Amino acid sequence: MKLNRLIAALGAVLLLLPTLAGCAQNPGQTSSSSPSASPYEAPEVSIQWDEATATKITLSGGTAQCGSSAVSVDGGVITIQTAGDYLISGELTDGQIVVDAGKEDTVRLILSNASISCSDSAAIYARQAGQTVVLLASGTQNTLSDGADYTYAEGEDEPDAALFAKDDLTIAGEGALQVTGNYNNGIGTKDNLVIQGGSLAIAAANDGLRGRDSVTVLGGEISIDAGGNGIRSNNDEDPEKGWISLLGGDFTITAGQDGIQAETNLTISGGTYAITTGGGAESVGHTSGGDPPAAQPGRQGEAGTPPAKPQGDAALSGESASLPSLPAPMASPTLEDSSASDSCKGLKAGSSLAVTGGDFQLDCADDAVHTNGDLTVESGAFAISTGDDGFHADGALTINGGTISILQSYEGLEGSTVEINGGDIQLTASDDGVNAAGGSYGDNWDSFRADGSHFVRITGGTLWVDAQGDGLDSNGGLYLDGGTVLISGPTGNGNGALDYDGECLVTGGVLLAAGSSGMAQGPSASSNQNSLMITFLESQAAGTLVNLSDSQGRSILTFAPSKAFQSLVISSPELVQGEEYTLSTGGSCEDGQNGYYGSGVYTGGTKLCQVTLSDTMTTISSDGTVLSGNMGGGFGVGRGNRGQRPANG
To answer: Compositional bias (Low complexity) spans (predicted)?
Structure first.
């Protein structure tokens, strides 16, 4: 089967991901379906070739020599007219390799220490072929570069990349390729782009890699320094196209806009990724207490035009010794100085995004992982710093596994619905830790209030939250069915460790939610698991141990919130109605992690009170006084200080 047919088949399968990843769930049900790894296996291109049978093209200054009738040489323009293997070596100082073969032909360009530069167009231009393969000979160093200005025939606007193909393009082999796209993109194709292997170093004024219909990467080492997007598939006319599938590879990407952007679906099943966008998280000015970024990039697809052609002599921003230098592209956008259409996300998809493996280091001015549809994480390791959300889905956000560390964010996890079924998650947020709202807020927060379509559900895994805003915020229901949830929430009384607009039902797992008392909420009395909510008479210092022991002196749990707190919600399967418990602070405990010591040995604390659980939800003051309901001390008014939230895109 031809490459384009196989890739089209994968595109059709990827269209099913939104239904697999985020079918609307009854809040009383747990999502059981999730997208599997892509079934697509890209047809492997053989990297073997026979020097004896390959057509040899020897580049020499401003021209080339070739003895085959399949190749025409007109000054610096070398045109290949038929299928076959073409061995290219030497240096072409100002010229171009043109592939103009039959519509079904496969043309393989074997680069063997080849250097091609063109001052007014692409270095390699595959005008027509069924498939063009650029094969990097083992042990060789190859370079391609174009000029800052192109000369087009009347009515033409192609090529627009240093290496450009109108049809399918595959890059394979064990050699190295350095590409400098001074005019616009580094490597681009109007159809499907496949990277099978090789060591690629790409510097581009706009996008590093662009496959209009799709991009598939199976392996290789890829370094990109781009003024626009690092990797992009941009077909917005056919819903079966515009997707990216990353099955492996080692990526280092510095991008002025998005790191990896798919117009429709983005699937990642392996590889390592070090991605910096828009100058990184530190380019965005955050203040504590939930103030949003100064500006918010626009929606998927708005930043679709290439930047102005570069001017000046400065090199591209970013550090990579292997990358070529070129005239500086547009200034890397940051949220402070960008227009509303700029987007500086790490991983971005228009329809759906699914991660089933990989190792990610993301430093982004905008959302680190973003989709306008559903987002599913099955596994993978994430280290994230972001100027906005760590993970954002306009649709359903589902995390089934993986290790996620969000070191800096505006909000850690956000979706129309948020489901956590497994994994190890640690996040720090200047506003909400987890937020079920989704969509684009604009200026109207009330449009998302008490909406039954929004909920947060946690069934497993470990979630540790350090939030200046709400710890868990659901503009609907909050459901805790399992796992371990540890919250060091807000110190200000305008937010709470738990904030929900419907009901909070606890049926399993461990919940420890510490924060301020003014807006504190506890679980609903209709929960199946017992809970205790404590309002302390005085604010407790960060790191203060709080212990709850049973009537036999056995420690049920010990927790040390990472920030000052005056309210604490405790829910555990160990809590039994009618039993008496002792509440203590201070002292010491053994074998803790992230402030949680479980039932570890606790000694030396100060007893505050004894409490008998009288109901599913028992609310007390720290001196033992029983309070009514499941609300905190009541220092504030209303449901929290939301502030002005930027529109998501």
So the answer is: 314-335
